[in-house]
Every structure is written in C-alpha cells, then in structure tokens.
Amino acid sequence: MNQRVRVTIQPEGKTVSVLEGTSVYEALGEAGIIIKSECGGSGVCGSCKVRIVEGEYVQEGSERYLTRDEIERGTVLACRTRITSDMKVEIPVESRLFEQKILTAGIAAGPDSGVSLSPAIRKTAVEPPSPSLSDQRPDLERVADSAAVSDSASGVELKPVPLEVLQALPETIRQDGWKATVLLKDGGIIGIESGDTTDRLYGVAFDIGTTTVVGYLLDLNTGREVAVASRTNPQTSYGDDVITRIHFSGSKENGLKVLQKLIIGCINEIIEELAGSAGIEPAHIYEITTTGNTTMSHLFLGISPKYLALNPYVGAIKSACEPAARELGVGINPYGRVYVMPNIAGFVGGDTVAVILASELYKSDEVRFAIDIGTNGELVMGNKDRLVACSTAAGPAFEGARITHGMRASDGAIEKIVLSDGEVSVNTIGDSLPIGICGTALIDGIAELRKLGVIDERGKLLKEDGLPEGTPDFVRKRVIDHETYKTSFVLVEKEKTGTGSPILLTQKDVRETQLAKGAILAGYEILKETLGVSDGDVKEVLLAGAFGNYIRREQAKRIGLLPDLPLERIRFIGNAAGSGAKMLLLSQNLRKEATLISNRTEYIELAVSPDFQKRFADAMFFPLSLKNG
Amino acid sequence: MNQRVRVTIQPEGKTVSVLEGTSVYEALGEAGIIIKSECGGSGVCGSCKVRIVEGEYVQEGSERYLTRDEIERGTVLACRTRITSDMKVEIPVESRLFEQKILTAGIAAGPDSGVSLSPAIRKTAVEPPSPSLSDQRPDLERVADSAAVSDSASGVELKPVPLEVLQALPETIRQDGWKATVLLKDGGIIGIESGDTTDRLYGVAFDIGTTTVVGYLLDLNTGREVAVASRTNPQTSYGDDVITRIHFSGSKENGLKVLQKLIIGCINEIIEELAGSAGIEPAHIYEITTTGNTTMSHLFLGISPKYLALNPYVGAIKSACEPAARELGVGINPYGRVYVMPNIAGFVGGDTVAVILASELYKSDEVRFAIDIGTNGELVMGNKDRLVACSTAAGPAFEGARITHGMRASDGAIEKIVLSDGEVSVNTIGDSLPIGICGTALIDGIAELRKLGVIDERGKLLKEDGLPEGTPDFVRKRVIDHETYKTSFVLVEKEKTGTGSPILLTQKDVRETQLAKGAILAGYEILKETLGVSDGDVKEVLLAGAFGNYIRREQAKRIGLLPDLPLERIRFIGNAAGSGAKMLLLSQNLRKEATLISNRTEYIELAVSPDFQKRFADAMFFPLSLKNG
Questions:
Q1: Which of A366, A433, A555, B385 might form a disulfide with A498, Cβ 3.0–4.6 angstroms?
Q2: Residue that terminates a domain, selected from A194, A215, A235
Q3: Residues A166 and A293 in one domain
C-alpha cells in the first residue's frame, strides 16, 4: 500500500496525489474540497455520496445508504471507499457542504435553507424623464425620484451622496440619454453609472490569512461562486508570524505602510486574476469583504497593531469597518466598498467570528467546540446562550516553525506518514522528492511512534537500547543518536530526499509538538471549565481551516491534540473563515449577526487564567490509551 | 447740504463718508451695520436707538421713544437724526439686529428668542481607564464607552468611524495618558484628539457671493461672533457674472478645476485671516457652512454647473451637501466638515434659502416679499403656508454692467446723487474723485430726473429743447446731445472727475435700468398672481443683500423698482444670506428647516410664465406718481 495514486476530482478538474489505500473522503479533503458528512467521515450517516467515474477501489457497506439507481451510476460513500488506482471522482452538487449551503441563490431564507441573497450594495436601473422647463428637478433629485420608484421596496432616501458621485453626475446621467444605474447601500445612493449595468454586480470575499490570502469571486445577482484565486501573503517576507510583523510595522521607518501596501497589492493581484478568469472587469466588482485575524485586519486598514503585541494586548478596533475601496486603494469599482469583519479580541479575530457564523455555533442548542489552527490556534466553545473563546500560540509548530526539518504544507513537504507492512511510507506534496515535513505528517509521525511505544507518554523518544520489546526491526533501525539532534527517528534516508540529507523526527520536535498540543488541550479544558461542561456535554468538535482540514483525526486524538471523543463527533468544516466572508458578502442581514457574535463572545485571556499553567503542564503528556476511535 | 461729513461708528471703529444731512440710520446702512427697526427707518417704532458720542446733528421727535436717562446719555433714534458735522456714533448692543438675535448664546429656544446653540459638531472630553489584562477593550470601544457616559444626552453610537480617525487612534489616545476629546456629529464619532480640547470649538459661516466672499468666525461654545473677514471672489477674473463663469468652467481645459481652486484658495485665505485676528489655530475650526447662489455652490463643490446655463437650466443637486473639509481641501481641522446649504432651483440658490430662514418668512402668518439684489435678483413671496420664488437677471445693471459709466460699489464710485439747491451733489465712495456710478446712484439719478420730468414715464430722456417748462437751469444746462451717447445728463463735469472725462447718465442707461427694474417688478407681479394676493396683502417688503441695504427706498419706489407701499412696510434686513449661514452653523436643528424651505419653496420659471412678457413690458414704464412715501 505504499504506491501513490492520482485522484482527479470533477467538475473542478483538480488533481491530488495520495497514498494507495487512502479513502476518497480524505483525498477530497486534501484537495480542499469539503463535502457533506454528518458523522465526520465515520461511515454512519450516508451523506458523503460521490460518483466514481474511472478507476479501481475497495468499498464496503455503502449499499445500505444508496438507491439502486445510485449504485448503477457508480455512486459510493466517500468515507467507505479506499482508492486502489488512479481515479476520476465526480462530486454531485447535493453532496457539497458549504458550496451548496452558501452559494446557491434563491433559496428561501431560514436557518436551515442557506443564506438568502441580500448583498449590501444593490443596483437599480432608472430612466428618468429628461428635464424640461416644466420639470426642472436637478440631476440628483431626478435620479433619486426614479430610483425610489424602481426600487420601492428599499426606500431610497436622500442621504448624503458621496462628493465624487455628484462631481461625475451631470455627465454620467446624460451620457446614455438619461438611462442610468443607481448603486444603493443602506437605502442611500453611493454611485451612479451610465446605462443599465444591473447585470454586472460582483463581489469578492477575502480570507486574509497570515500565510495565505484567498479570494472568492461571487456573482451577487445569483449568489454563485465564479472563480477562486489565492496567493501567499507577501507580508511573509517580513515575518512568518504576526508578532514579527507587528514589530516590523512599529519599529521600521514606514513599516506599517510597507505591510499595508503589500497586502493591498496582493488583494489587487487576486482581483485582477479573478476578473480575468471570469471574463469581467474589476470595475464590475462593487464590494469586497475580508476576514482574518486581528493583526491582518489592522495591517490591511493601515492601523498600527503595535499595542496588540504589548501587554495587555489590545487592538485599536473591534467593530466592523466599512471604508470606501478608494480610501484603501483597492482596485474595484470607484464607488466600491470594503467590509472588514468585526473581531473578538486581539488574538481572536474576524476569522473566528466567521467560523462561529458559518458553523452556526451561535445558534446551536447544544455545546460545540470549534478549533481553527492556522498560524495561531483559536478555540471557541458554546451554544446559543453563551460563547467563550481563547487563543493559543499553537500554530507555528504545525506550520513547521521550530521543527528540525519542518516546513509549510507546500511542494516537497511530507504530509502523511504510515508505519506498517514493515516499512515507513510517506506521501509528499507535489510528487517531488521530500525536503521536509509539514504539520499533518508531524502528527502522524509522533502518533505512529507513540502507538509503537517508541515515544513514551511523557514525550521521551526512547533510545535504541531502551525501545520496548517487539519494536519492529524497520522501526528500530531508524532510531539513531544524531550528533547534533541526539535521539532522532529517520523518516527518509538521505538517498531518497531532495536535500541529500536524511529527514528526521527529533526529540526536540516531539517537545515542540507537546507544547503546541498542550496549549490547545489546556485551552479546551479552560473553556469547558468556564462554561461548566464536561467532555460528554460537548456535542461536536468542529475542525476549521486548512490545517484542521488535513488532520487525520485518529492520529490527532492519539497524541492528544484533539479531545478523546468518538470520531463521529469530530467534524471537518473546511475553510469556515472563508465561508463566513462569503456569507457576509451575499447577505447584508448576516452582518448584524456578525456584530452580535463579536460582542457576545467572551474572550478568555489564558495568560491571566489562574488554572492555565497547571492545565498546560498536564496537557503536555501524551494520552496513555484511547477510549474511543 | 452738499458737504461731506465723516461718521465713525463704535465699537467697530468703522468710518464712512456721507453727504451732510444724511440720516444716521442711512449712514449705518452704508457702513454695512444693520440695526433694529420694526418700521424700516420710518421713524415710528422707536427701535433704532444709537448714542451720539461726538458731533452735531438735527433730530426731531426722538424724545417720545426715549427715557430721560437715555436722553441724558445722548441717545437718539437713528432714523430721526440728520448728521450736520463729522460724528462719532455708538451702537448699543440692544439695537443690533441680527447680531443680537443670532449670535448671542444661551437664549432659550423659540421663534422669538433667537437661535438656540446646537452646533452640528460637538466635543466631549473622555478619560477612559487604561487597558489591563482584566479589561482588554480595544481603543475605539474604550473611548466610545467613555464618550457615551460623558455625553449621555446625545446617545453616542458605534456608527462607522472614518478610517483616518482609526489610523491615528492608537497614538492619539496614548499621547496624553488616556485623556482625549471626542468629536461627535449626528451621534457618531468623527474625530478623536489628544487631551482635553473642549474649550476650542470654532466654525466659520461663509457667504460666497458672485462678487464678494465673506466669512464670519463664530465661537461654537458661546455662539459669539469673533471675527469677520472678506475678499473679492477671485473667480471674478474669469467673469463678472455666473453665466460667463459657467461657460469658462465648461469650455476651457480644466476650467471647473481652476474656478474651484480659486474659491477654495479664497476661503482658506479668509480662514487664515480670521484665525489670525482671533488668535486661534485654523485647526480649532471644525466646521464651515456656506451659502451662495447655485452656481457658486456647484463651483465650490467641483460639480460642473454647465447645464445651469443651458435650457432647461437644471443643476446637479438641490439638497444640502456635507463633504469632509479634507475632500475639498478646506484648511480647517483635519476631521472638520463642510455644510453647503440646499438650494431651490438653478437660479434661486442657498442664499435665498438663507434669506427665507433668517427673515422667518416661512413662519410668517402674513404674506411677505423678500428681494435680494446681488448680481442676480432673487424674489420670494409667501408665508407659513406657501412660498414662491423666482429669479430675474436684474442685478448686472445695478452692479454697473452695461451702464455707460457704471461700476461696482467700490472706491471712486458715485453712490448717491441729489439734485437740489441749484446744484448736483454727489457722494463718492472712498473720498477720491469720482470715476463712475454704482447702482444706488443710478437709481438716485434716474429718480431725481424723473421727479423733474427730465425723464418721462416711458423712460425717454428728453432733449434740451423738449424739457418741461420750469426745469431749473442747473439741470437744463447739463442735458446734452453727446456725439456717441446721444441725449445724456452730465452728472459730473470732466474737470471734477478722476478720469478727465465727464460722467454721464445716458439714454441707454435709463433703458438698461428699465429692463432691470421691469424684470423685478414683473417678477413681483407674477409672484402675487401665483399666490392670488394684491399689494394690500403684502405685509412687508424685505430688502436683503448689500445692494438692497444701500438703496434709498423713496427713490427706488419713484422709479418703480420697489412696489408702491408705505415706507414702513419696506424693511432692510441686511446680509440675510450671511445671517442664514451663521444660524445654520450655530444650530444643527435649523438645518432641517433649511431642507424644508428648499423643498417647500416653489420655483416659478419666468421664461415659461405666460404672463411674464406682458407684465415685463408694462413694468418697464416709470410710475406716473407715488401714492405713498
């Protein structure tokens, strides 16, 4: 089972390379495609239906969840199907998770039927009578009167109209013979265009991550996602983590301006790319929404995040911010707007608000726990009555920081490790020779070694002569005493790497992982304690974000990164931050909910939580055994 | 009575030169100082009390309006006192008209007790607790919470805060150890400053005339006027009248930008001067209000007025406009705002709204008629139930345009003409030799010649051989047949002018005046007809604006420029446009009234009024005789 196979996913046309024997469900996750699964891939809900177009596979027990028609068409449950050759898989629209729930227009409003389409900026076409000596209304009032008629539902008011709209108005309104399109926001006029342009109304939802920036182009007339594009956040060149960037923004000449310019340049590149692939003009984009951590929001807005990094860690603003695109230099329609999501605290940002919104945690009757591991790890727990959140500096280890051969999940990174059948099998991103390991493989490696007893419950990587009896030879021979790194496990021999050196998992890596997972687990304990609940009360653990999405839950539980709950109660929710940004782009009404979430969610500062240090020390140990799985 | 005397007015220290025998009331008018007078200077109300500090005078009948104390202190009624030597006059504060009514703070609100002080931008000092680990509210929310406490009456909301405020916030709030001042407008935060700056809150009301720009600096904490400054509108170099400027704005490269830059430069100069004379910084000025005709407003805002000059003469905007000062480049506080008054129609602007507001025409039980003769003549008639307005191209003649030796009311202009005691007496502005005549003298000259029958009721300036019997010799000998101008009256012989040529009043001048006064009178007739009222129903004629303020009512009636109503029903109301701008600077509440006036006032386009041409032809004749006077 150590062969790699290529899986092509339709209709996207995306291809991923996975180890033979990987489930289709997992392969889709690696491709960043999230599908429905009530049970989180445990094989018991029957939601994750996909169609195998081409290729060989082993599946068991799908039949009871499928109709005869479906079986004839090649439909299987993704989680019950293991891939044994190159494969083409088609995902039917009904199996899409957030895609279906968020992006389809015209679904009736209501908690379970998706997001009703109500973008903040709307258009209405007007064709006022041209002026005459018996009708000398000025241009603005003439247009506004017509807009009030053609858009009677919204109640067009004569709110202050931006000066630049007025300056352009006399020519704009006459250019196409008194045919024009009025842009409305909150009942006020924010722009006027010549002719009828109502068929062109686009927006972009941005997830501005510390590492990656993703933009989703949505057609605001239909709610459909038209294109997606992403870039590495160019601020990365001034520091991998937020703290380094905060220091750069404050200490260097113009540091803040440099970082703001970089992120806005990146956003403008993404806008250009999105417009290009959709065959539209950037001027047809009227609004962008952004989500991200509090530091990313501050830098994007050009507000110094300096005091976020100094005790007591406060930001300049918590509420949503709605500047004009032109104020920030965002290259969309000249009358366009920006909506920056509200945040919760200095280290629990708009991305967490988005997770709460998209997962509907704030409407839940039962207590749920959401965890978003990016460069930081934000944890939130609660239900419709109460929400508590905290932040842990958990991410860097899982993004490769401070790990001996650690690296981000990019080309050449080992992303999966399996110790079985007498050999160490690894899967590498991009099919090239491995050059390092990323977070998911770090968890795999430690979990596999822990399972074999090579790592003890205190996190000690045992020396060769201390290994438990029965340790397989192929494992034993890879435990070495490295002259620099001391006790280490050889994941890949030097002959098989892209660097010419062996790729190791070292004692230090285990310790770093213990710190990271200990912080997360301790945060989880503190949140439970704050709410006065126990594991049994936590209905579900929701894994958000790219990293959460790639985690193998069994392994994560084995090392104690995730609480020891049954797998069906641990659910992937994909890029929930991005989903939240899309929802707020499609629905103005949900922005009130976002503000409510921002205000309602209590932030627990772990640094001042009296129990945290003790919890943290306890949480660094590895579990002795697993109760479920 | 042909000697000139100098009158010094205290406490202003202004000096004017007038003909001996002029009333104190009239002299004050020439100095631009408006005092109380219910009867319009007819000697019957006893309001226009002034104190003669120095100099000789003849007065009759003041006593019955004065107390013994007042008489002992030298108090007289200005309208009943004629000046017979150089004089010093003091105006007690209780005799001030708009000054007293508008600028005194703290007067209880109500229609008869002045304007209550409620500026649009307010300040509140805050001193929030500094952040700690147990209070991690972000800067903005921390400040807003404190502002809501210290300013509970206004209900501070978390409306969108301007981006530049947020960008400056982290440093601003820490600069003076968490002491700050919040700027509030409409309940939202529009600015935050370090320290307690609540004692510095100023505003400037601007009257942007086609010819003259006046700025009034007001202390918005007390309502007091602190300084006044004026400039010639520098756009004058691109045309004396609005039509020429409109053409320039449209036809030349960047014409609009050139004119906008000129007026904003002028306003900034006035701001600098005002701040200098008051000993404050321009940054202590937080708002300016502007009034002016529709073209001036468009040019100030950088909106093309092109279509105002083309049939059917419509502007781009009628409603009030409230841009940020920074958007226009107005040099006040960086968070400052601009309020541009709403207008009524293309040629009835915010200045007319201001006249209606300041004169309280819109609250009047009885019908009143207000007339503002500047470069154009705007007429408005009505009461609390209905208001109608029209515009006439009446002004240019009275500003010297198209008059043979016409000129503006500036140094060297003859401003008064008296034919009596066997000679022609003229008064010249600035005590220099005369070089031309301005509007008031044009009216005087024609009225005096009409009284003697030298001009007949059809406007014919009779030739020497056609003059009525009994025409005095000193008049007869001045009627000449000029080789260029034909029949003319020599006002000043060439030996006594500053030009070396005689200053003439020509047949053409009489015709131009007939056109101008005919237009105004016809407008008056049309307004009466629209409202269905007669002269007897018109309770008062209110004369606004600089020119209206200098007119001698008896002479204006004689030529039929003003309707033939008793003098006590013709009242000067001074620079009512400027007064309106001040009122709106002091009182946010009155801005709603201004909008109401703008929307309620019906505009009559004389060009399409079926009766206008006939009325106009009739109105060009001079009255045969006067019923009252």
A1: A433
A2: A194
A3: no
Residue length, chain B? 629
Answer yes or no: do A306 and A182 share one domain: no
- Domain-embedded: residue A107: no
How big is the CA angle at B559 (ends B501 and B464), to the nearest 5 degrees?
50
Burial of A123 (0-12, 13-18, 19+ CB in 10 A): buried
Is the pLDDT at A294 greater than 90, yes or no?
Answer: yes
CB nearest to B166's CB, from A160, A174, A301: A301
H or E element at residue B338: strand B337-340
SS3 at position B33: coil
Do A246 and A364 belong to one domain? Answer: no
Same domain, A532 and A563: yes
Helix (H, G, I), strand (E, B) or coil at A202: strand
CA angle in degrees (0–180, nearest 5) for B324-B326-B330: 100
Residue A198 phi, psi (nearest 5): -65, -20
Of A231-235, A608-612, B546-550, the range with the lowest mean pLDDT is: B546-550
Say which of A138, A319, A327 has its CB closest to residue B158: A319
For the stretch B424-438, pLDDT in tens is 999 988 878 998 999
Residue B348 confidence class, pLDDT cut points 50, 70, 90: very high
Question: Would you say A134 and A121 are in contact if contact means Cβ atoms under 8 Å apart?
Answer: no
From CA B414, how far away is CA B424, in angstroms rounded? Answer: 12
A–B interface: beta-carbon pairs under 8 A: 138
Residue bearing tokens 């007893």: A453
Give B514's contacts (C-beta < 8 A, 6+ positions apart).
B459, B620, B621, B622
Mean pLDDT of chain B: 88
Whether B167 is in a domain gets the answer: yes
The two structure tokens encoding residue A501: 């050196």
pLDDT tens for residues B180-226? 999 999 889 999 999 999 999 999 999 998 888 999 999 999 999 99
Task: Report chain A residues whose CB lies below 8 A from the CB of B246.
Answer: none
In a shared domain, residues B178 and B237: no
Q: Say whether both A172 and A306 belong to one domain.
A: no
pLDDT value for A114 = 63
Contacts of B317 in chain A (CB under 8 A): 138-141, 161, 166, 169
Write the ipTM.
0.81
Q: Is the pLDDT of residue A259 over 90?
A: yes
Dihedral-angle region of residue B192 (phi above 0 means left; psi in -120 to 50 means alpha; beta otherwise): beta
User: Which CATH number belongs to the domain containing residue A133 in this structure?
Assistant: 3.10.20.880
User: What is the SS3 assignment for A238?
Assistant: helix
Confidence of residue B1 (pLDDT cuts 50, 70, 90): very low
User: How many of the other CB atoms lie within 10 Å of CB of A410?
Assistant: 15
Which residues in chain A are contacts of B318 at CB distance < 8 A?
A: 137-138, 140-141
A190 with A207, same domain: the answer is no
Number of domains in chain A: 4
Q: Which of A185-189, A295-299, B56-60 has the highest mean pLDDT?
A: A295-299
Note down the domain range covering B288: 202-340
In terms of DSSP H, where are the helices of A471-506? 473-476
Q: Which residue has the tokens 């002491």?
A: B179
Residue A480 belongs to some domain of the structure: yes
Q: Does the residue A103 lie in any domain?
A: no
> In whole angstroms, what is the distance from residue A40 CA to residue A556 CA?
14
Which domain CATH number covers A86?
3.10.20.30
Token representation of residue B500: 């070396």
Say if the Cβ atoms of A314 and B133 lie within 8 Å: no
Lowest mean pLDDT among A178-182, A443-447, B30-34: B30-34
Q: Tell me, what's the pLDDT at A40? A: 58
Q: Are residues B245 and B389 in the same domain?
A: no
What is the spatial distance between Cα A173 and Cα A177, in angstroms, rounded to a whole number?
A: 7
Tokens, residue B36: 């109380």
Indicate left, alpha or beta for A155 from its phi (over 0: left) and psi (-120 to 50: alpha): left
